[in-house]
UniProtKB/TrEMBL annotation:
This is DNA (cytosine-5-)-methyltransferase. Pfam families: DNA_methylase. Its EC number is 2.1.1.37. NCBIfam families: dcm (TIGR00675). PROSITE patterns: SAM_MT_C5 (PS51679).
Amino acid sequence: MQKNGILDIFCGPGGLSLGFALAGFDVVHSIDINAEALSTIRLNHAKIHEAKGEDNYYCAEERDLRTVKAEEILENFEGKNFRVQGIIGGPPCRGFSSANTKTRNPENPHNSLYKDYIRLVNDLQPDFFMFENVVGLLSMGKGEIIRDIEDKLGEELGYVMDKAILDASDYGVPQTRKRVIIIGIKPDRLKPEYDGKVRFPEKTIDKAVTVQEALFDLPAAESGCMQDVYEYPEIEHLSSYARQMRKTPLLNIASPRVLNHSTTKSNDVVLERYKHISQGENWESIPDHLLKDYKDKNRCHSGIYRRLKEDEPSPTINNVRKSMFIHPRQNRGLSVREAARLQSFPDWYEFKGVRDSQYQQVADAVPPLMAKALAEQIRRMLI
């Protein structure tokens, strides 16, 4: 008998895959066009299979999804004695993001990739699908894109489906990050007690995880330090979140050291700017004489030079090197590991590629703890 397997498309570094693996799903095949993100996801899936003491059947393929045929995917799954139970993923979101003021329009080629998601759902007929994207998807093309998705997957293909805006901070992620989630399940695979309706996961925590709980057990680091691997400092009382990041009992994996903890080097002017910014403040707190190279300060985004508040969740994590998020207490930008902690990637999850690519991979990922909550809810609904 064939086993159930998951296809992860537009997989990035693997936040969705990790969440579904934590919920007990088998992720068999991932597809993305980013070679460095694929190096990350391959390495960490190998760690998962090694910890489980099983052969590594996982495949991460570097392909433009527009060239991928359903027959190729089926051949890969069936060759490993799997069937496609579910398809997960979200097309690149920069074309939909409200932060994108230059190419946020239907003509952006990235904005048509959702059609290939629909094509594969149509051709592979999985029991379920899960689609993730930025909130801007809902207003793109005056709502035409979301209507097209709902018409094709719901009305034409017959999936029981619904959409919701969920915040990652409700699922144990120390970050305010709102995303559109669409879940669809075949009517004959949805348990009768759900009355023909898809439901989304309830909050998994009562109180949001703060930046302090997420980061303060990590070793101090100097700006521009190239040291990438650190020993854990001795901490008398670890937060429950820090313990969760250091060890993943569900997969029987722990990190013996802190990985990806090098920081970006800042010049003397930038370091001086940091000194004028208190927690929760941004570039507006910097004196004018230190901003002479900014020709038009009115065009500065509110997230630039944002110093994190330790007693709150982080704002939405983007490429923190480019936006220059500042550590709450240290005058430096965040390390890749700190950004990954704020996205809920465990410490053993290692990012590959050049450092700027690592920052971008973290920024583009779905937080694994949010993905896990979604996967567990899908599992509850499936027959």
